[in-house]
Structure formats: structure tokens, C-alpha cells
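Justification of resources, computational component.

The compute hours requested in this renewal are based largely on the per-chain cost of generating structure records like the one below. Each record pairs the submitted sequence with a full C-alpha cell output. That output is archived, and it is also reused by downstream analysis tasks.
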Amino acid sequence: MIAAVPAIAGAACVLGFAPFYWWPVPILALAVLFAAFERAPTTRRAALAGYAFGLGYFLAGVSWVYVSLHDFGSMPAVLAGLATFLFCAFLALFPGLAGWLARRLAARNPASILFMSAATFTAFEWVRGSIFTGFPWITIGMSQVPSSPLAGFAPVVGGYGVTLMTAITASLLAAAARRFESRTARARVLAAAAVVLAIGGGLRFISWSEPARPPVRVALLQGNIAQELKWRDEVRTRTLDDYRRMIFEAQAKVVVLPETALPAFFDQLPADYLASIREHAAANGKDVLMGIVEREFRAGEYDYYNTLLRLTGARQAYRKRHLVPFGEYIPPGFRFILAVLKIPLTDFGSGGKGQAPLEAGGTSFAVAICYEDIFGEELIEQLPRAQALVNVSNDAWFGKSLAAAQHLHASQLRAMETSRWMVRATNTGASAAIDERGRVMASLEPFTAATLTTDIVPRKGQTPFVLFGNLLALLATAAVGGVAWRIR
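The structure output for this chain reads:
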């Protein structure tokens, strides 16, 4: 029983993320978890409750890993299912450790346990997003964007700070559910939770940036090329022709193609093909940002890069720096996995830190390729110089699962953290334009071939999160843990 209830609560958390956006659910789910931590008779039972929560959370929220491994990676169903389960079982360790540490540090003091739970849960969510290159997918803070009052903390303390505020609110609700000697004591606890929500709501009214120039029109191309067909020779010419036609038809200053939109290395593209696009762009005042795979021959072998390239004017390029383990590179000691995992191009090179934003249409764009936009502290390295954000992705790897919608939700959090518009060009969805408050202003229907044309507002200024990154969230987490330690 001590494991079943937290597991159900963990699975319910998925309703807080896109496409559902039921932001109160994760707050209530964490309240259930923290109450389980507090009522567990031993630290081991608290760890079990946290592990059960994590298992329900990740099996419900990250099950799309199976689709990538089996449907598109050609891994046998049994192995793909086992690999997905083991991956989720590993991720579940982090809330399990949060429960163990909260009870270990707070001893048996109920108030101390609840506040320590908020601190340890947030700390281990940050660890999950950092260890082994990190996997900060569906962080609890993300669930509050864009509608919850707690989303107002995002420009100040970032996604992990919103996680902390969500956890504090949950701990207060868990405390209010306890038996009190008077109604006044319970009312004070609920009032404290209301104050946290009110502060977050008040922060939402602050404008952290201002327009830097008039709106610029952007066209986001969604080619909808099936992943299993993309690299086949018989569809390559049609894909090249379709994207060229979409570029020519786009009525915008900036035209953005998805990640690895064209199924060829850049140096393999026909010279007349590139020339025709450049001539059209020059004649019509367009800047074209193209997702492509580049290769460079060095020391007797090729180095490959996942690149967003400005095709017009002087060469500008952003090369993906944060690569996907087992998808874009194989960690040392795991080469044997290639025998069962048939994913092309698993030996990319990293573009490295310190890359400049891309200039297009008179606007400076901070770039994130694919799941790089779930790493908020990396994206802000291109700010405050960048006036807008652009993400190019190919979420066809995940089929018709929750992954594409969850990925869009992560972009909404990045827009709020930086107070910048975010535009997303994807192969199959979700292609969208998001304003500086995290609201989806325009989007395309998934799994359709179409162009989204929209006006975005380049902005200037910097939020506290842009200035300090995750530092404020980590300091606040340590402070909450310190308070919990004092009241033990």
C-alpha cells in the first residue's frame, strides 16, 4: 500500500504536462508523495515510496523511449521493452533518494520532513538533469507553465526554481492535511501556501524584456517526412524538391527548416540546387536557416555535425553541442549496442560551447537543436545578445506519443525563463511560435506537411535567470533545506 498510492500519484503527474496542462495535478501528487515520506516508519520505506512515485511518473511520461528503440531503432520488442523499463527504473532512483535523504536529515520531526522533502526533491531533480550528460525531461517545474501562478517564478529562478516553489506548495498542502489541534493552525498553513501562489502570480505581471525592433515575419517549414522513409534513395529527390518549393512559396523574412531536414550531407547537395535557393532568397529578401548534417574530413576520417546553417549571405552556422547518448553518439564501452540498435549517424561531433547566435532577418536567434532546449542553463549562454529563440527538431523518432507535445512544453518554459519568443520548426510536429510569456500563439497540426507563417517580436533585456542561471534556484533549495534542518 505504501508503494501503490505514490505510484498512482506519480503516474497522474503526466496530466500536468502537454497536451493536458492540468497544472494543479503535480502539486497534489507531490503533496501525496511528501505525506508518504513523512508517514513512512523508516528511511527505507520513505525511499520505497519515492521510488514507486518515480516509477509511475517515468513509465507514464517517458514510455515513448520504446517507440524510438523498437519502431525506428529496429530493436526487438522484448529488448526495447526491457531497455525502456530499466531506463525508467534508473530515473526513479532520484525521487527515491530524495525520500531517503529527507527522512535521514529531518529525523522524525513532521514539519522538518515535509520542508526537507521539498528541498531534496528539487535537488535530485537537478541531479537528474546533470548526471551522465543529464535528462531533465518533464521536470515538475515545467508542469506549471504557462498558466499556473507558480510559472511567474520562471524568469527569476528558472525551471528548477519553479520545481522548488511547486514542492514547497505541496509540502504546505501535505502539512494542512495533518491533524491539527486548532483550525487556526491549519488556516495558517493554507495561508502560507496561498502566499507562495500569490507571489508567483504577482511576478507574472512583470515585463522582463522589451521590444528590440518591429515584428519580423518567420516561416516554419514542416515537411512531415516519415522517419522510416527519410533516408531512402527513392524519396530523396522528392524531399529536396518539396522543401525547395516550400522555401520558394514562403512569404516571410526568415525561413526555418527542421533538424536534418534534407536527407543528405551538405557537401552532397547538388550545386544547382543550393544556387537556386540562394538566388531566390537574395531576390526576395529572405534568410534561410537550414537543418542539415555536415561532415569534415580530418586525419583520415569524417567528423559529422548536426547543424543549423544560414544558407544566405556570409556563412553562419550553429553545430549541436549537447548530443543524445545512444542516438547521436555511443558512450565508451557501449559499442555492442549497435548490433541491435539500427540508428543512422551515431557518431556526431559536438559543436562546443561559446557559439554565437545566428543573424537572420535583422534578428539575432539563440539556437537549440532537438532536445537541447530542455537544458535551460545552456541556452542562456547565447543571451542577452539573442533577441529570439529558435529550435529545430525531428520528433518523428517518437511517433504519435506524448513526446512531441512534451518537447513543445519544454520550449514554453525556455521562452518564459528568457522572456523571448521561441519559434520551433519540426519535421512532423509540434511546429509553433511561442511568445515571451510561454503562450503558444500559433502552431501546425502534427503529421501534416505545411508552413506556419507568423510574426514574432524580437526582444531585449535579461531576466534574473539569464543573469544567474540555476544558481538562484540551487541557493534557494539549500536555504529551504537549512530551514528544515533548523526546525528538526
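Residues 154-176 form the longest helix (23 residues). The chain is about 45% helix and 15% strand.
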